[in-house]
């Protein structure tokens, strides 16, 4: 009986280790990601340089459609290099894994108003108070978000 209890605890602890935080949560990744407008508080480039940008993003699922809306002035995401804010709309899904499953540590998204095709964000941290994403398609910049 002790062995079964120990194995159960170990399995529970290992299954909760997808993201850096929270250690244990009863909300699904979808519930933590959606229903919040996320505001970028810091963008850290791969070389460690910290940048302040205006970037708000909302992830939603409506009638089976997964959509996002991003308002930003960050030149990596905008149409031009001006300081004007652009609104980027598109569709997103969890990254694909083996055997038709989804990898809920990756977000695959396609902006509708750009010709980039799919881009990929790795979820480093996901809680109700913090979202940290790393751009795996462009420059490995890490974006730190807080609820607006």
Q: Top keywords for this entry?
A:
148 residues, mainly beta, Lipocalin, eight-stranded antiparallel β-barrel
Global geometry: globular
SS-based class: mainly beta
- Largest sheet, described in full? 8 strands, antiparallel, barrel
As a whole number of angstroms, the C-alpha radius of gyration is 17 Å
Instruction: Write down how many β-strands occur, each being a DSSP E stretch of 2 or more residues.
Output: 9
Task: Outline the fold blueprint.
Elements: H1 2-15, H2 29-33, E1 37-44, E2 50-51, E3 55-62, E4 65-72, E5 86-96, E6 102-111, E7 119-126, E8 131-135, E9 142-147
Antiparallel strand pairs: 1-2, 1-3, 1-9, 3-4, 4-5, 5-6, 6-7, 7-8, 8-9
Overview of the molecule:
This protein has 148 residues and is mainly beta. It has one domain: Lipocalin. Helix content is 13%, strand content 45%. It has 2 helices and 9 strands, in the order H-H-E-E-E-E-E-E-E-E-E. The chain has an 8-stranded antiparallel β-barrel with strand order 1-3-4-5-6-7-8-9. A hairpin with a 5-residue loop joins strand 1 and strand 2. It is globular and about 65 Å long. The chain starts with a helix and ends with a strand. 14% of the residues are buried. The model has no long low-confidence stretch (mean pLDDT 82).
Summarize the structure.
With 148 residues, the protein is mainly beta. It is built from two helices and nine strands; from the N terminus they run H-H-E-E-E-E-E-E-E-E-E.
């Amino acid at each position: 009986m002790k062995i079964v209890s120990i194995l159960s605890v170990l399995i529970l602890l290992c299954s909760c280790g997808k993201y850096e935080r929270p250690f244990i949560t009863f909300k699904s990744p979808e519930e933590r990601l959606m229903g919040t407008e996320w505001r970028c508080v810091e963008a850290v480039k791969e070389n460690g340089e910290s940048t302040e940008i205006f970037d708000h993003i909302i992830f939603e699922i409506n009638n089976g459609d997964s959509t996002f809306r991003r308002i930003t002035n960050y030149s990596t995401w905008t149409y031009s290099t001006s300081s004007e804010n652009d609104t980027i709309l598109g569709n997103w899904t969890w990254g694909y894994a083996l055997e038709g499953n989804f990898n809920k540590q990756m977000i695959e998204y396609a902006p509708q108003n750009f010709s980039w095709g799919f881009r990929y964000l790795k979820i480093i941290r996901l809680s109700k108070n913090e979202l940290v994403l790393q751009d795996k398609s462009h420059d490995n910049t890490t974006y730190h978000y807080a609820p607006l």
